[in-house]
Design a protein that fits this description.
The chain has nine helices and seven strands; from the N terminus they run H-H-H-H-E-E-E-H-E-H-E-H-E-H-E-H. With about 250 residues, it is an alpha/beta fold. Strand 4, helix 6 and strand 5 form a beta-alpha-beta unit. It is elongated and about 70 Å long. The mean pLDDT is about 95.
């Protein structure tokens, strides 16, 4: 029974990485299930010799309890961070903002990805309810992208009826930190330094993004667009690692 459980859990992790990598951009969240699942799969496949090693040697005992501690600590952190991520990601945006920052993500050639399209659709809904607000499309050009994320977003918003005069393009940023820094400079010029700001990203990304903005002295409340359901486990795992890393590094 235990051997079967190890094989099933391990195969699930490895299979997740193989499937997701075929349909989504490669990132740490894509690879993490493989990193977590491969040791479990190997333990299940070589169950008898591995359990003999665990029980018959001092080194084996240390390895066994190190693995138990590592997996327990990691998934405890995932549970805690997931609660924070979920709560922040489902908060409603405050009305009356002077500008909405749309944080960029993957573009395939010249087309916005499904994740980015959902962020833009959330921004469109907000802009319709707040017709005086500017929108900042923020994102540079990365590998595999024929145009900048900002340009792809500008085209999408324009095609959905947003006047060009309301769209501010920030096409140099390569990280969330730069998204906020460069976008704030554009907003200061267009509206003024006291502009009321909100931003939109995918739900799993709101918690960390808000804290990055605050670390820069930028007050901006975030609201979340729907995640792609089958990518949610990968995104929550990756975001947990990112939150822990940023916290340890003193960046949030």
């Amino acid at each position: 029974m235990l051997r079967t459980l190890f094989i099933l859990l391990g195969a699930l992790g490895v299979g997740d990485t193989l499937v997701v990598s075929a349909y989504s951009n490669m990132n740490f969240g894509t690879v993490l299930p493989l990193i977590l699942g491969a040791p479990l799969l190997l333990i299940g496949i070589f169950f008898r010799p591995v359990t003999a090693f665990f029980s018959s040697t001092v080194l084996g005992a240390w390895v066994k309890w190190a693995l138990v501690a590592a997996y327990t600590a990691f998934f405890t952190l995932v549970a805690i961070c997931s609660c924070l991520i979920y709560r922040e990601g489902h908060a409603s945006p405050p009305a009356g903002a002077d500008a909405v920052i749309v944080l960029g993500c993957g573009v395939r050639g010249e087309r916005v990805s499904l994740t980015l399209a959902r962020r833009l659709d959330a921004a469109l809904a907000y802009l319709e309810e707040n017709p005086k607000a500017y929108v900042v499309v923020s994102g540079g050009q990365g590998a595999g992208e024929d145009i900048s994320e900002a340009e792809a977003m500008r085209r999408y918003l324009a095609a959905h009826g947003i006047e060009e005069s309301r769209i501010l393009m920030e096409d140099k940023s390569m990280s969330t930190l730069e998204n906020f820094l460069f976008s704030k400079a554009l907003i200061d010029d267009a509206v003024g330094p006291d502009a009321k700001l909100v931003f939109v990203t995918t739900r799993f990304h709101v918690f960390r993004s808000e804290r990055i903005a605050r670390s820069l002295g930028i007050e901006a409340e975030g609201f979340g667009a729907d995640d792609v359901a089958w990518l949610s486990p990968n995104n929550y795992l990756r975001e947990t690692c990112a939150i822990v890393y940023y916290r340890l590094a003193g960046r949030i």
